[in-house]
Design goal:
Largest sheet: 5 strands, mixed
Structural class: alpha+beta
Distance between the termini: 40 Å
CATH architecture: 3-Layer(aba) Sandwich
Number of helices: 2
Number of strands: 5
Radius of gyration: 13 Å
Shape: globular
Number of domains: 1
Order of helices and strands: EEEEHEH
CATH class: Alpha Beta
Strand order of the largest sheet: 1-2-3-4-5
CATH topology: Aminopeptidase
Length: about 100
């Protein structure tokens, strides 16, 4: 039985400033920049073949959890992350 999407680990790629999920030879990403106590989420990218599986939401949650754990203010330039925060009020305090 193939792993469920929830069982596929999210990798924090510090060298490339992004969170990644690798599945079926493809990579879904959440890119960011971190400066002066802030994390700026710039882009969420999920290949079409992986769309509709909740990977973007998992990446957004991982990025926001990282910000929370490291006491970083969030600047959601990425519209997907902004929309995720609007749907999950527990992250509103990070703005």
């Amino acid at each position: 039985m193939p792993p469920t999407d929830e069982s596929i680990p999210i990798k924090h790629n510090l060298q490339n400033n992004r969170f990644e999920i690798q599945k079926d030879g493809l990579v879904a990403i959440l890119e960011y920049q971190q400066i002066e106590g802030k994390i700026i989420f710039t882009h969420t990218g999920v290949p079409d073949a992986l769309g509709g599986q909740g990977l973007g939401s998992r990446l957004a949650k991982a990025g926001l959890d990282y910000a929370q754990a490291n006491q970083l203010k969030v600047v959601p330039l990425c519209s997907f992350v902004y929309a995720y925060i609007q749907k999950h009020p527990e992250y509103q305090g990070l703005l």
